[in-house]
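CORE FACILITY INTAKE
Project code: CF-77B
Contact: R.S. (postdoc)
Sample description: multi-component assembly, two entities in total
Requested service: structural model of the whole complex
Turnaround: standard
Below are the sequence entries exactly as provided by the requester. Do not edit them.
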Amino acid sequence: NAGVTQTPKFQVLKTGQSMTLQCAQDMNHNSMYWYRQDPGMGLRLIYYSASEGTTDKGEVPNGYNVSRLNKREFSLRLESAAPSQTSVYFCASSEPGGRAYEQYFGPGTRLTVT
Amino acid sequence: SQQGEEDPQALSIQEGENATMNCSYKTSINNLQWYRQNSGRGLVHLILIRSNEREKHSGRLRVTLDTSKKSSSLLITASRAADTASYFCATAGGSNYKLTFGKGTLLTVNP
């Protein structure tokens, strides 16, 4: 099992450009999450999907959109990137939906917006 | 805003010593979890303690939870250089599938 995979690993964008971060899990988990981590900070929840077909805002959703494409995949889109979105983005999954079991994290995407 | 706050922010010890990290939180929880993050990597779950539990062990890890003080501690015994990492506490509240993370404690274990 690959666990949680994220693509790309690194990305540099110019202000105003758009991009989609991809995340996939092969553990048949119901719940998936997107976090951002800034230096000296813990993880902050951007969006989450408790189960296939549902998405909800987290703590810092502004400037982002998400799509739960199917049970395996959960993508994060930046429509018009801003320097404030320079961060490391982590995707995570957990099972089953509705219970706070441990979360499994991907390796992260390091995004720089210039 | 962060629910958990770890203390200290950074801790440096010698190999073989014990390391203790603390986490305080503000609202009632269903469970509290500890995660480790090696530099440049994703987080790895270490241990979960439920609100009705007071202590839990896993290998060299010991977690305590005091709901009356809204605090938890993580003890790593007989530390190794490989334990060098950032450690985060995360709390699960009313919406059980969401976790709120603290800012973490950076542990350095010197050989």
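Facility notes:
- Chain A touches chain B at residues 4, 31, 33, 35, 40-45, 48, 50, 58-59, 90, 92, 94, 97-108 (CB under 8 Å).
- The longest strand of chain A covers residues 87-94.
Invoice: internal transfer
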